[in-house]
Amino acid sequence: MESQVVYEANGTPNVKILPSPDTEINGHIPNGHTNGHVPNGHANGHLPNGTTHMNGGLSPHQSPHKDHHGIHIIPRSPRLGTPHRRQYVPLEANEDDDELGEFRQGGRIACNEKMMEDAVMEEEQPPKDRCYIVYLIMALHGVGTLLPWNMFITAEAYFTQHKFANVSDDTEYKDKFVTYLGIMGFVPNVTFLFVALFFPPKSSRLTTIISVNVMLSLFVLTTIMAVVDSSGWPKIFFAITMVTIVLFNCGAAIYQSGLYAICAKFPQKYMQSYIIGQGLGGTLCAVIGITTLAAVGDLKVAAILYFACAVIVLFMCVVTLFIMVKMPFVKYYLDQVKETSLEEKEREAIEGERPPLLKIFRDIWLQLYNIWVTFFVTLTVFPSIMVMVAPTSENMAPFMQKFFIPITCFLLFNVCDFLGSCVPAWVKWPSAKYTWILTTAFFLFCPSFLLALHRLATRHLPVFLNDWAYIVVVIAMGLSNGYLKTIVMMDGPQAVRNPNWAGKAASMMVLFLVLGIFCGIQFSLAFPPLSQIGS
Length: 535
Known about the structure:
Layout: E1 2-7, E2 13-18, E3 23-24, E4 52-53, E5 70-75, E6 87-90, H1 97-123, H2 133-154, H3 156-163, H4 172-175, H5 177-198, H6 204-227, H7 234-265, H8 268-295, H9 299-324, H10 328-351, H11 357-381, H12 398-422, H13 435-441, H14 445-450, H15 467-491, H16 502-523, H17 527-531
Parallel strand pairs: 4-5
Antiparallel strand pairs: 1-2, 3-5, 5-6
Helix pairs in contact: 2-7, 2-8, 2-9, 3-9, 5-7, 5-16, 6-7, 6-9, 7-8, 7-16, 8-12, 8-15, 11-13, 11-15, 11-16, 12-15
């Protein structure tokens, strides 16, 4: 449609509208009205003094309603058939021309603002996680975070009773292997978490991908070393194993910190999915350990199966990580934070500010306390204290007597931990400000296990818990640990005042998580002397 303004002899403007297939006027115009029936000659609802806003098909036999105000005409692009310009055409003037001009200007502004808001809302709609693919991938990476290291711990008998069993000249490898395993595992883990927190990499996605590939390569090497006979060079094998553990935990620290930072930018349920995966990883490790112990009598074959399972899981993590970072859902949230982070960095460069670690600490210090306490208590009793608990019932089945520790310590605890991490999807603690009440009460599990069946042969304290009461305590602790760690890790990154700090807050949470593990393992060394009080 084409329009032409014609001035009468007295100077009054008028409009001549020429129908055309290239013109689109908003809405069907029944009875000469725009957008349906409009009382008092008003268009588009309650607009004062009336304004016609048309955008739809106009056939040649139709004509717009002409009043004393004007119409919005949107010519269409001849090639694309889409609106490309908005024109305002006055029809006629009268004595209210000044007031009418003000309204016309306001009408155009309001209309443009509404269109811009609609366009922004349409553009900002996040892509859907189709078939929950990203949710499942995050659960898989939760498994990949803990299962490989748990396989190292599960295969402890393979190292002490197979690889170093025949080394008669130096028993230090066998007697202190678990101690070296803990030191070489947690020291580089904590160190690299500090480095990642204060000196973050330019591309967290790239470092996460590199770290998981390093972990995969090291476990392939470990599997090969399990096949090779190293009885003639135990010192070299011990050195290779320790170097492998150090490098593996360096990569695991970067991998775990990067995944927590990624989850912090997604909706909360994806953080829960990642933590559920960690609980599932512990459960799978326990199942594999019990199965191989029952079906395979050879420690070497069992160790090869352990390490092969870890290789398969890590390979799946590598493949899915490459797929995940290219998915529209993931790119939307990561690129959204990246754009706002660039603005934040520009502001910090102008104001001369460093990354606000102190501000982040002030925002989440309570959640840092919660996550530290949760893992401190858990690692105080699991597994170092629970593996020393022995059954007392004489009527227990032979199978349970043989597998009492693997079932109660590893399988039962990990299954309950997994179930506890699923509970926040339905029942969540109402306020993150008061989660400290639950985590502080979590300390009560330490004396509970001290009063259980711990070190029966050497203890002097009385035993207050029988076999079944001990199993109930294990179930309660597993459920509590899974629930608490999930809600704390979900609430922590959300507690910062600036959403762009969520990734950094998640890295800080992981650091305190690992510190809780380290402190709990050290405190567990005090339990054996405490059990002998009264001697």
